[in-house]
Design goal:
globular, binds flavin mononucleotide, 8 helices, alpha+beta, NADH Oxidase
Amino acid sequence: MTNKGLTFREVVRLRKSCRGFLPEPISKDMINAVLEDAQLAPSNCNLQPWLTHIVSGDKLKELSDAITRAHRDNSFTPDFTFDEKDFYGEYIDRAKAQGKVYYESLGVARGDAEGRKVAAEKNLIFFGAPHVALLFMPSFGDNVRIGGDIGMYGQTFLLSLTDHGLAGIPQTFLGMFANTIREVLGISSEFKMMFGISFGYADPNAVSNIIKMGRDPISNNVTFHQ
Ligand SMILES: Cc1cc2nc3c(=O)[nH]c(=O)nc-3n(C[C@H](O)[C@H](O)[C@H](O)COP(=O)(O)O)c2cc1C
């Protein structure tokens, strides 16, 4: 038995985004167990539209080098738009609060653009994780439904990591280099990428792992009708 025997409540509350990993790889059996859990995610018409590429070892280093180069060359090739300038109102506030907590945990000052850049670039080395799961999908219409399915899969994957005593972080940042990733891994342009999940064992000494993001009370977003 590879899981930790946590209750559902414990798993949901323990999961958080990890931004500092130990280099120690995870056994193939445990990765397979997480993949088997994620496979049970629901999807529109049971399409199961997730095509998961797990990258580890030398290939992970090759991928990291390639996306780091693409980043330095400003060679951004996202399959889907993501622009923080589109946020408004409370969404700007929440995004700002998240950035503040993260950068403060790293000791990066508010106006320190270089420090922020270095912190953001940790995405490109997968925050030190020994593995990344890159979630590809077919493209249908405006892709919103399929995107939702990928989100269901991603969250099941993340909860399973927690259940196995592991940690992960979903990364839209990786999706900014979709063409580079497809090239390195030999993936057809037919398949699109929304985000990846770096995963491994959490580094208990990483300062970036001290933070725990809060949530609004449910009264802010739930409306009951009867
Ligand atoms: C689809 C998705 C993409 C994300 N992309 C990134 C990313 O590229 N880099 C990053 O540091 N965090 C990323 N995050 C993590 C969020 O910042 C994090 O989930 C949020 O602040 C809540 O914190 P928690 O996951 O610890 O509860 C992403 C989260 C999701 C769900």
